[in-house]
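Write out the 3D structure for:
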Amino acid sequence: MLTDAELLALLLRTGGRGENALAVANGLLEVCGGLRGLARAAASELCRASGVGPAKCSSLLAALELGRRLAAQRLSPGVAIRSAADIHRHFHASLRDVLHEQFLVVLLDGRQRVLKTMVISTGTLTASLVHPREVFRAALREAAAAVILVHNHPSGDPTPSPEDREITARLARAGEILGVRVLDHVIVAESGYRSFREDGDFEALLASP
Protein backbone atom coordinates (compact mmCIF):
# COMPACT_ATOMS: atom_id res chain seq x y z
CA MET A 1 0.00 0.00 0.00
CA LEU A 2 1.32 3.42 -0.97
CA THR A 3 1.94 6.03 1.71
CA ASP A 4 0.15 9.39 1.74
CA ALA A 5 3.29 11.05 0.41
CA GLU A 6 3.65 8.51 -2.42
CA LEU A 7 0.02 8.96 -3.49
CA LEU A 8 0.47 12.71 -3.39
CA ALA A 9 3.64 12.42 -5.47
CA LEU A 10 1.67 10.57 -8.16
CA LEU A 11 -0.72 13.51 -8.34
CA LEU A 12 2.13 16.02 -8.51
CA ARG A 13 3.93 13.94 -11.20
CA THR A 14 7.08 16.07 -11.11
CA GLY A 15 9.14 17.87 -8.52
CA GLY A 16 10.68 21.30 -8.61
CA ARG A 17 13.55 23.43 -7.35
CA GLY A 18 15.95 20.51 -7.30
CA GLU A 19 13.51 18.16 -5.51
CA ASN A 20 11.73 15.12 -6.89
CA ALA A 21 7.95 14.70 -6.61
CA LEU A 22 8.18 12.58 -3.45
CA ALA A 23 10.27 15.23 -1.69
CA VAL A 24 7.78 17.93 -2.68
CA ALA A 25 4.91 15.73 -1.42
CA ASN A 26 6.61 15.13 1.92
CA GLY A 27 7.32 18.84 2.31
CA LEU A 28 3.72 19.71 1.50
CA LEU A 29 2.36 17.26 4.07
CA GLU A 30 4.76 18.56 6.69
CA VAL A 31 3.82 22.19 6.09
CA CYS A 32 0.08 21.46 6.09
CA GLY A 33 0.14 19.06 9.03
CA GLY A 34 -0.88 15.93 7.14
CA LEU A 35 -3.78 15.10 4.84
CA ARG A 36 -6.37 16.75 7.09
CA GLY A 37 -4.46 20.03 6.95
CA LEU A 38 -3.94 19.65 3.21
CA ALA A 39 -7.69 19.29 2.72
CA ARG A 40 -8.23 22.53 4.68
CA ALA A 41 -5.53 24.52 2.88
CA ALA A 42 -6.58 27.39 0.62
CA ALA A 43 -5.49 27.47 -3.02
CA SER A 44 -3.21 30.43 -2.30
CA GLU A 45 -1.40 28.45 0.41
CA LEU A 46 -0.85 25.44 -1.85
CA CYS A 47 0.44 27.57 -4.71
CA ARG A 48 3.04 29.15 -2.42
CA ALA A 49 4.38 25.77 -1.28
CA SER A 50 7.80 24.74 -2.57
CA GLY A 51 7.55 22.89 -5.88
CA VAL A 52 3.80 23.52 -6.29
CA GLY A 53 2.61 25.92 -8.98
CA PRO A 54 -0.86 26.80 -10.30
CA ALA A 55 -1.21 23.64 -12.42
CA LYS A 56 -0.26 21.27 -9.58
CA CYS A 57 -2.41 23.24 -7.17
CA SER A 58 -5.42 22.77 -9.46
CA SER A 59 -4.77 19.02 -9.65
CA LEU A 60 -4.57 18.76 -5.86
CA LEU A 61 -7.75 20.74 -5.31
CA ALA A 62 -9.60 18.62 -7.88
CA ALA A 63 -8.43 15.38 -6.24
CA LEU A 64 -9.45 16.60 -2.78
CA GLU A 65 -12.90 17.61 -4.04
CA LEU A 66 -13.39 14.20 -5.70
CA GLY A 67 -12.49 12.57 -2.38
CA ARG A 68 -15.08 14.66 -0.54
CA ARG A 69 -17.77 13.81 -3.06
CA LEU A 70 -16.95 10.12 -2.89
CA ALA A 71 -17.08 10.17 0.91
CA ALA A 72 -20.40 11.98 1.05
CA GLN A 73 -23.62 10.00 0.96
CA ARG A 74 -25.64 11.55 -1.83
CA LEU A 75 -28.71 13.47 -0.65
CA SER A 76 -30.77 13.32 -3.82
CA PRO A 77 -34.32 14.60 -4.34
CA GLY A 78 -36.77 11.96 -3.16
CA VAL A 79 -34.49 10.50 -0.48
CA ALA A 80 -36.30 10.22 2.86
CA ILE A 81 -34.62 11.74 5.94
CA ARG A 82 -35.16 9.58 9.01
CA SER A 83 -32.69 11.00 11.50
CA ALA A 84 -29.98 13.57 12.15
CA ALA A 85 -27.47 10.82 11.37
CA ASP A 86 -28.71 10.86 7.75
CA ILE A 87 -27.91 14.57 7.57
CA HIS A 88 -24.48 14.06 9.15
CA ARG A 89 -23.57 11.24 6.75
CA HIS A 90 -24.24 13.49 3.80
CA PHE A 91 -22.71 16.76 4.98
CA HIS A 92 -19.76 15.64 7.12
CA ALA A 93 -17.33 15.06 4.25
CA SER A 94 -18.16 18.34 2.48
CA LEU A 95 -18.36 20.61 5.54
CA ARG A 96 -15.75 19.33 8.01
CA ASP A 97 -12.82 21.02 6.23
CA VAL A 98 -14.54 24.31 5.38
CA LEU A 99 -12.76 27.16 7.18
CA HIS A 100 -15.83 29.38 7.52
CA GLU A 101 -19.35 28.66 8.69
CA GLN A 102 -21.96 27.75 6.10
CA PHE A 103 -25.68 27.69 6.82
CA LEU A 104 -27.82 25.41 4.66
CA VAL A 105 -31.43 24.35 4.58
CA VAL A 106 -32.77 20.97 3.45
CA LEU A 107 -36.29 21.35 2.03
CA LEU A 108 -38.63 18.40 2.61
CA ASP A 109 -42.06 17.32 1.42
CA GLY A 110 -44.85 16.04 3.67
CA ARG A 111 -43.24 12.58 3.90
CA GLN A 112 -39.84 14.01 4.86
CA ARG A 113 -38.36 13.37 1.42
CA VAL A 114 -35.76 15.76 0.07
CA LEU A 115 -36.94 18.38 -2.38
CA LYS A 116 -33.80 20.49 -2.52
CA THR A 117 -30.74 21.58 -0.53
CA MET A 118 -29.75 25.24 -0.52
CA VAL A 119 -26.92 27.34 0.92
CA ILE A 120 -28.45 30.31 2.76
CA SER A 121 -25.34 32.10 4.00
CA THR A 122 -21.56 31.80 4.12
CA GLY A 123 -19.37 33.42 6.75
CA THR A 124 -19.74 34.08 10.46
CA LEU A 125 -23.05 32.75 11.73
CA THR A 126 -25.08 35.66 13.06
CA ALA A 127 -28.77 36.45 13.28
CA SER A 128 -28.36 39.18 10.65
CA LEU A 129 -26.88 36.75 8.10
CA VAL A 130 -29.47 34.01 8.68
CA HIS A 131 -32.79 35.75 8.31
CA PRO A 132 -36.14 33.91 8.29
CA ARG A 133 -37.12 35.49 4.98
CA GLU A 134 -34.15 33.84 3.22
CA VAL A 135 -34.87 30.42 4.69
CA PHE A 136 -38.63 30.45 4.18
CA ARG A 137 -38.63 32.20 0.81
CA ALA A 138 -36.92 29.10 -0.55
CA ALA A 139 -39.25 26.78 1.40
CA LEU A 140 -42.40 28.48 0.15
CA ARG A 141 -41.11 28.66 -3.43
CA GLU A 142 -40.51 24.89 -3.45
CA ALA A 143 -43.78 24.17 -1.59
CA ALA A 144 -41.83 22.50 1.22
CA ALA A 145 -43.79 21.10 4.16
CA ALA A 146 -40.77 21.12 6.48
CA VAL A 147 -37.10 22.05 6.65
CA ILE A 148 -33.97 20.89 8.41
CA LEU A 149 -31.36 23.51 9.24
CA VAL A 150 -27.69 22.58 8.86
CA HIS A 151 -24.47 24.41 9.56
CA ASN A 152 -20.84 23.58 10.32
CA HIS A 153 -18.44 24.49 13.11
CA PRO A 154 -14.91 24.96 11.68
CA SER A 155 -13.54 24.62 15.23
CA GLY A 156 -14.29 20.89 15.08
CA ASP A 157 -16.58 21.03 18.13
CA PRO A 158 -20.31 20.67 17.32
CA THR A 159 -21.51 22.03 20.68
CA PRO A 160 -24.24 24.66 20.01
CA SER A 161 -23.35 28.25 20.85
CA PRO A 162 -25.81 30.79 22.32
CA GLU A 163 -26.09 32.28 18.81
CA ASP A 164 -26.97 28.86 17.40
CA ARG A 165 -29.77 28.54 19.95
CA GLU A 166 -31.07 32.03 19.23
CA ILE A 167 -31.17 31.45 15.48
CA THR A 168 -32.83 28.05 15.90
CA ALA A 169 -35.58 29.47 18.12
CA ARG A 170 -36.13 32.40 15.77
CA LEU A 171 -36.46 30.20 12.69
CA ALA A 172 -38.62 27.60 14.43
CA ARG A 173 -41.08 30.29 15.54
CA ALA A 174 -41.18 31.77 12.03
CA GLY A 175 -41.85 28.32 10.62
CA GLU A 176 -44.81 27.82 12.95
CA ILE A 177 -46.36 31.06 11.72
CA LEU A 178 -45.79 30.19 8.04
CA GLY A 179 -46.89 26.56 8.35
CA VAL A 180 -43.46 25.14 7.47
CA ARG A 181 -42.11 23.00 10.31
CA VAL A 182 -38.48 23.23 11.35
CA LEU A 183 -37.80 19.57 12.10
CA ASP A 184 -34.25 19.93 13.36
CA HIS A 185 -31.06 21.96 13.37
CA VAL A 186 -27.97 19.78 12.88
CA ILE A 187 -24.48 21.13 13.57
CA VAL A 188 -21.74 19.28 11.69
CA ALA A 189 -18.10 19.30 12.80
CA GLU A 190 -14.94 17.23 12.47
CA SER A 191 -15.58 15.41 15.76
CA GLY A 192 -19.23 14.57 15.04
CA TYR A 193 -22.60 16.30 15.10
CA ARG A 194 -25.23 17.70 17.44
CA SER A 195 -28.96 17.64 16.79
CA PHE A 196 -31.26 20.08 18.58
CA ARG A 197 -34.11 17.60 18.17
CA GLU A 198 -32.18 14.63 19.53
CA ASP A 199 -30.84 16.73 22.41
CA GLY A 200 -34.41 17.64 23.39
CA ASP A 201 -33.75 21.37 22.97
CA PHE A 202 -36.52 22.26 20.53
CA GLU A 203 -39.43 22.46 22.97
CA ALA A 204 -37.37 24.48 25.45
CA LEU A 205 -36.27 26.93 22.76
CA LEU A 206 -39.81 27.49 21.56
CA ALA A 207 -41.04 28.03 25.11
CA SER A 208 -38.33 30.57 25.93
CA PRO A 209 -39.25 34.28 25.67
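Residues 28 and 103 are 31 Å apart (CA to CA).
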